[in-house]
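Schema walk-through. Below, the input block comes first and the output block second. Nothing else is stored per chain. Lengths vary across the set, and this one has 243 residues.
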Amino acid sequence: MDKETEFAQQLRALASERGFSQAEIARRSKLSRSTVNRLFNGRLPTVEQLEQLAAVFEVSTDTLVGSSDATSVLAQAKIGPTAEEHRQVLEEAARVKAELLSVKAELNAERERRKEAVSARLTAERLADELRAELDRARVIEQQLRGRLQEAQAFGDKWAETSLGQTTHIKALEEANSVLTRDYAATAEHLQRYEKAYKLLAKQFQQLQRSNQALAHRDRSRADPSGAVLAGLLGFAFGRSMS
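--- output ---
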């Protein structure tokens, strides 16, 4: 009986005995579905494939090939990759390379977005510092005006209580008092606007901080060891293509 046919029959018999489908055998052996199908249809395995299948069925390679002289059977097998396998390896390498390039482009885009976020945060911090300085200046002016208003009121009270409290002086003091009151009201209004702007800027700054934290989390989630596996596969595929 032809060894190739004997191997295929033995493989189908073991699969039937274990209740394994071709898909299950492919999953357990780490072989592709197409490779398993070709082996079921009479193709002889490589040494590596034979060992993988023997491990799946938990039998010796001699039992799997259906002969006590496994060496003679293995000598007939195609040890090297076929042209189809070589093409599949190259296609897989090209696919992995394209995925890696896509991931690299996405990482570069995220890096740029992160730079923009950092720049926006620095700008927000600078504006917050400027606004805090403006608020401090406004508070100083408010205190000065309050002091001047108190002095004017005290001076007016003094003039009203003395014999020198003439109408013209009282009127001048009232006008000065009115001006100071308006200045104080305007300063208080500016101070309120500054405080509102500062609260809004503080809220935006917190949003930027949360955005930066989200970007950092995405960076950590991408630090996956599967990248090393893809790179290893790509190196192996190109190594096989060069050989």
